[in-house]
Task: structure prediction
Amino acid sequence: MGAFLEALYFIVPVSIAYAAPLIFVAIGGVFSEKSGVINIGLEGLMVMGAFVGIVFNLTFADQLGGSTIWFSLLAAMVVSGIFSLLHAVASISFRADQTISGVAINMLGVAIALFAVKLIYDKGQTDYVSEQFIRFDIPVLSDIPFIGPMFFSDVYSTSILAIAVAILAWFVIYKTPFGLRLRAVGEHPMAADTMGVKVNRMRYIAVVLSGMLAGIGGAAYAQSISYEFSHSTINGQGFMALAAMIFGKWHPLGAMGAALFFGLAQSLKIVGGSIDFIDQVPTVYLDILPYVLTILALAGFIGKASAPKAIGQPYIKGKR
Amino acid sequence: MSKRKYGLGLSVMLAAGTLLAACGSDEETQETNGNSGEGSEPTEETADFSVAMVTDVGGVDDKSFNQSAWEGIQKFGEDNGLAQGDGGYDYLQSASDADYVTNLNNLVRRDFDVVFGIGFLMEAAVNDIAQQQPDAQLAIIDAVVDQPNVASVLFKEQEGAFLAGVAAALMSESKQIGFVGGMEIPVIERFEVGFLAGVEAVDPSIEVDVQYTGAFDKAELGKTTANRMYSEGVDIIFHAAGGTGNGVFAEAKERKTKDPDANVWVIGVDSDQYEEGAVGDTNVTLTSMLKRVDEAVYRISEAAMNGEFPGGQSTVYGLAEEGVGLADSRGAIPDDIMAQIEEFKQQIVDGEITVPETRE
Result:
């Protein structure tokens, strides 16, 4: 039992830390797709966020000191938000195929970021940042037996922020007029339009929101895990977030749960050797768990995967 | 989902394309500048010889063996008064596994005298081209291609890793040591086996915690693995995991930042990873196990220029040939321990110790 508890005290914080960047990005995906715009570009937006976060951090660490990391998140949020406008303009105003536009964002994101790194630093990757997100124990709370070591020790501030954002997103989408309009636009844009909701404006807002959150996710990852930016810094996490969003059935809290679950699978793989039973499972199964679960979720084996009805369709006013 | 995968593939390709374009133009301008500056000086006799290499997906500035190979070729070019480009020295980057054959073929057709394929991933491609172009001289690093016109270069990683193991065992205070590997492939296994043998040679009671992450590019896995190991009392981790190893450094640095007295160390791999370990004024890099791909590339090129291209042979670079070794620890390892490491090194060079290559 002691060993199991020890393992648990390790697994839970590690899973949360792994999941935090994914949560931001997945929530971003929820906003965009709830409004009816597919956002495959999450990966590219995340790359952009990681890139901007690291460059900002390297440039301003001397002036801003300990608060650099937060300003970097902010900068990444702004730049990725602007970057996502490309997707918004193409897929909303020009009614381009949303999947293709998203793919273009992915291509552009990596290309621009690497090109810029090459231009700025004259090498294939940036230096390591000196200011990073560091784990800390929350005072008082971390002394609570059992719960303390599990949830309140070794916490990244980005994890707390991620969970807060997920809850806030749930509140915004399901409890505010704005959220109602957002969902209406994604389910039945014509009905929403009849009721006076500006469909395209809602969609613009949603896509930019998703860009901002993906940017935060990328910068959070880069500043808490890789500490640098290179071609492999963001390497599929955006797609993992997309998977988490689908596995979470386009629900903010579901997406958060899915991201946490993916984190759990990852950490189980690493700690698995020291826990009875799990050490019998070959690591390859833990490796593929997130992907298999996503496929199962998509195939409808785990409840109904309920995508917004109007997803992928540009809204043309007056057309039936 | 297929569209997404396709998109990922496309974006990776485009990204690498941009990268390639960027460095190509950049270095060419530098080269021209350099030449015009040196024009008046009596340069060394310009050899009528050219050499080129194809990187694997890591890229030419991967801080690892691609970069090392390119440095070797650049040095060879400079020493022999060659210019970058056709008839001198050059490289092509591969954005994906599909590019190897094309790139190799491209360079062979551009009449480079020797074309290097860097990395075991290129084994099949080099084999194909060697058969299609029997007159070309090819070389491959980290793999054996059994063709009369291919020179194969292998390293005794186990010997370098052995020294890393000795260093770790002598330096460890907690007597717990970790090894983080990338994919479980023969090359990485040589690192593991050599490292374990080195630790055991010093103190058989030390247990080495071995974990493979299954990937060379997942920093988060490296970080989590290192977190677990350090949490369980390990104080020195040797990584042979490429980009995943960055996560190991990140974890050690985070612990060092949080608590400057934390006793955490990382042993780097392939190239000197001192820079990766910097935390303010201190450093978590104990030392690095070097794999001198540059040295090997240089020697093969030199041999080929002198008409002694070792086609059809495998050359193995070990401690004796200075093909592997430890980097400068910059004071992290005290002199008396360095002396002991040196003794082990001498014993391996003299053949008194034979480092195993595979798990029994």
In short: Chain B touches chain A through 50 residues (CB under 8 Å). Confidence is low (pLDDT under 50) at residues 21-44 of chain B. The first helix of chain B runs from residue 2 to 38.
